[in-house]
Amino acid sequence: MRIFSGSSNPPLALAICEAIGIDLGRCTVTAFPDGETFVKIEENVRGEDVFVVQSSSPPTNHHLMEMFIMMDALRRASASRITAVLPFYGYARQDRKDQPRVPITAKLVANLLVAAGANRILTMDLHAQQIQGFFDIPVDHLYAAPVMYDYLKKLQLGDLVVVSPDVGGLKMAHAYSQVLEAGLAIVAKRRKSAAEIESMTVIGEIRGKTILMVDDLTETAGTLTAAAALLRRKGAKRVLACVSHAILNDLGVERLRKSNIDELITTDTVLRPVIDGVKITTLSVAGLLGEAIKRINSNSSVTSLFEFKGGRTS
What we know:
Blueprint: E1 2-5, H1 10-20, E2 27-31, E3 37-41, E4 49-53, H2 60-76, E5 81-86, H3 105-116, E6 120-124, E7 139-142, H4 145-155, E8 160-164, H5 170-179, E9 183-193, E10 196-203, E11 210-218, H6 222-233, E12 238-246, H7 250-257, E13 263-267, E14 280-283, H8 286-297, E15 307-308, E16 311-312
Parallel strand pairs: 1-4, 4-5, 5-6, 6-7, 8-9, 8-11, 11-12, 12-13, 13-14
Antiparallel strand pairs: 2-3, 9-10, 15-16
């Protein structure tokens, strides 16, 4: 097998290779003066089982295009099977027509991945589970929960209540609460725009408790910081946030610096610069992705990787 990496997250690709015990495949990814991407695979892949690691993190369109070009190069070099490894699947929030005359971009990205040459998809913590159904090829959907769970157990949090910062994340919050043997609460919100929340209400008992908010994705951190402020006003003792993909733009970083969140626990699915003034704990999912890649390569079952300590996030 061969593993290649685009430019979105080389440290994660190297960590995956280290976990498996193989070298990262050599390829050249450069840009022409006009901005067009050029890719050259620097080793023989004929008949090989190839994995391309690329998160569609910002700049999203650039990283997606780079991945399409890499897969096309591999397909034309006669790779026997190409698996697109997307630790973070961008455009996942555009998964339905929620207003007139808008696209379903998550489905468009699925079509483009297959058209570019993907025979299989390996991804983690999709924003919407139904995106698996947008593909007519096999999709292995992993969860960061086992990695998060191991870390949270070491913290030995007492009086814990798991909170979903919105109604959509209730299923994930319920899974965490079962495994951590904690209470469950929800923050119901009304959204004004993509970056602004209008009103919020807490459903559940949180006074005097340690709060763990769980979500799959944060970018502007609007929902998380507003929920944290509300939970503190309602008497929460301590607030931690557990987010699979913390993309964090400038607005998100600024909000976190001023927020009531004591610690943000996230993963290395997306590459982030070092952020000062915010306590961020980054856990690696390289071992989990590496194990999935090994099992896909040997045609073994990946099912056990979906489960953790008697819990399940789906």
